[in-house]
Amino acid sequence: MALGSGGENANNEPISTVIAETIANHKGVDPADLEPLYETIDPDALDALFAHRTDGTARTTGQITFVHAGYEITVTSDRTVTVEPSTDEE
């Protein structure tokens, strides 16, 4: 079951921010109290990977899934972010 989803396409927020806010909301803590996303993945690279192309068009392919802070996070080319509890051991 997904805890949350969204993305820059919905709120004009960077994907890395959406991930942190979704996990923090689920845990009932401030995003600043979470394990930093950069300990798992480069947040700037993640945001850039799914940013619009330099000509302003949206990306049409691509997806990444990774585990951070006990959650499986999937980001798709349409900038949808899905966060689910992970079954993987970290």
How would you sum up this structure, described in words?
This protein is an alpha+beta fold. Helices cover 27% and strands 22% of the residues. It is built from three helices and four strands. A four-stranded antiparallel β-sheet has the order 1-4-3-2. A hairpin with a 4-residue loop joins strand 3 (71-76) and strand 4. The longest helix is centred in the first third of the chain and has 13 residues, at 15-27. The protein is globular and about 40 Å long.
Characteristic key phrases:
alpha+beta; 4 strands; 22% strand; globular
- Mean pLDDT equals 84
Strand content: 15-25%
Strand order across the biggest sheet?
1-4-3-2
> SSE order, as H and E?
EHHHEEE
- Give the oligomeric state: single chain
Radius of gyration: 13 Å
Quote the distance from N terminus to C terminus.
20 Å
- Shape summary: globular
- Classification by helices and strands: alpha+beta
Q: What's the total count of β strands? A: 4
What's the helical proportion of residues? 25-40%
Number of H- or I-type helical stretches: 3
The largest sheet is: 4 strands, antiparallel
